[in-house]
């Protein structure tokens, strides 16, 4: 298979994480950012990411040097797109910005290049409908940071060629990611819809005085999350009853049905509930310490992914 050529458009944190991900998978990467100095600062950020990942054996056999050697900073957008087989866009989540950038991507990128967006909030139809090459447009939405978290949602617009979805999914697999092949677009895609359902209940439990914010976090962090790190929700219930998923539903379906009436109304994400949650979080992590807390989170994620990937190879 020929070495894929990747254009990264938008070279902040997500763009740099994508660059490491593609480069460790043997791709050549060109980086561009319209904001002066952002792309120029990317190599140092990428080197730091790659060195931390190498220490955890997360570079798929590559070294920080080999990863860095595959990445260059482009002089302009046309230079970044020259010869690209896949374009990964990471510009701000504003529709008017996306529409303007994507018009340029469609105009300048090779006709056979896949155009993919990292958007987490905008439907692909919203910024690709008027493009001549809209059939090659797709969302490839990662969990931040994609250099550590493998899941990627591959989301088509109504007019996306199914072959483009499959090409994108296969590229993600090549570079060590786990693609989620969505059948159609929907608000929130898959992962934010699942996360949103959990957050609705988390806010509801606090708002109704049932649990404190930290107790909700303990329930996930020390309860459900360790199990979810190795099995998904359907796998969980399949393994939690002697007769599998049908047995689980027969045993516990009534319990969940009884919960449903109290979960139908949207939770209050503002007012006293937000005040209580914000106060609890600021007592734990002052705003000025959030960067340090993010670094601790990423170090823990690195260690977790090192363990999980080691288990998958065992």
Protein described:
By secondary structure, the chain is of the alpha/beta class. It has helices spanning about 15-25, 40-55, 65-70, 75-80, 95-110, 125-130, 160-175, 190-205, 215-230, 235-240, 245-260, 270-285, 290-314; strands spanning about 5-10, 30, 70-75, 85-90, 115, 135-140, 150-155, 180. The chain has an eight-stranded mixed beta sheet with strand order 3-2-1-4-5-6-7-8, sandwiched between helices. Strand 6 and strand 7 form a beta hairpin. The chain starts with a strand and ends with a helix. The model has no long low-confidence stretch (mean pLDDT about 95).
Q: What's a concise summary of this model?
A:
This protein has 314 residues and is of the alpha/beta class. It is built from 13 helices and eight strands. It has helices at 13-24, 38-55, 64-69, 77-81, 95-108, 124-128, 162-174, 191-207, 213-228, 233-239, 244-259, 271-284, 290-313; strands at residues 5-9, 28-32, 71-73, 86-89, 114-117, 137-142, 151-156, 178-181.
Describe the global form.
globular
Low-confidence stretches: none
What is the H/E order? EHEHHEHEHEHEEHEHHHHHH
- Characterize the biggest β-sheet: 8 strands, mixed
Strand percentage lies at 5-15%
Radius of gyration: 21 Å
What is the total tally of β strands?
Answer: 8
> Looking at the chains present, what oligomeric state does this protein adopt?
single chain
* Fraction in helix: 40-55%
From the helix content, strand content and strand pairing, which structural class follows?
Answer: alpha/beta
Distance between the termini: 27 Å
Strand order of the largest sheet: 3-2-1-4-5-6-7-8
Average pLDDT works out at: 95
Note the total helix count: 13
């Amino acid at each position: 298979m020929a070495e894929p050529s990747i254009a990264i458009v938008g070279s902040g944190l997500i763009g740099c994480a994508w660059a490491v991900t593609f480069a460790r998978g043997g791709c050549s990467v060109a980086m561009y950012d319209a904001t002066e100095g952002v792309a120029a600062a990317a190599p140092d950020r990428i080197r730091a990411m790659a060195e931390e990942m190498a220490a955890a054996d997360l570079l798929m056999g590559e070294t920080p040097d080999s990863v860095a050697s595959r990445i260059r900073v482009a002089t302009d957008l046309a230079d970044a797109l020259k010869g690209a087989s896949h374009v990964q866009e990471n510009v701000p989540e504003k529709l008017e910005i996306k529409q303007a950038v994507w018009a340029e991507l469609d105009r300048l990128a090779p006709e056979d290049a896949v155009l993919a967006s990292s958007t987490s909030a905008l439907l692909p139809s919203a910024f690709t409908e008027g493009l001549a090459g809209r059939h090659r447009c797709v969302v490839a939405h990662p969990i931040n940071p994609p250099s550590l978290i493998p899941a990627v949602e591959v989301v088509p617009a109504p007019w996306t060629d199914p072959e483009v979805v499959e090409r994108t999914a296969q590229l993600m697999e090549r570079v060590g990611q786990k693609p989620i092949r969505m059948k159609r677009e929907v608000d929130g895609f898959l992962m934010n819809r699942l996360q949103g359902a959990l957050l609705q209940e988390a806010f509801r439990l606090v708002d109704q005085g049932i649990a404190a914010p930290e107790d909700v976090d303990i329930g996930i962090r020390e309860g459900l999350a360790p199990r979810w790190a190795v099995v998904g929700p359907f796998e969980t219930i399949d393994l939690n009853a002697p007769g599998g998923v049908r047995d689980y539903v027969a045993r516990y379906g009534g319990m969940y049905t009884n919960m449903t009436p109290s979960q139908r109304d949207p939770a209050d994400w503002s007012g006293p509930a937000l005040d209580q949650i914000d106060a609890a979080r600021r007592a734990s992590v002052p705003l000025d310490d959030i960067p340090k807390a993010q670094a601790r989170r990423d170090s823990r994620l690195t260690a977790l992914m090192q363990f999980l990937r080691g288990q998958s190879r065992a």
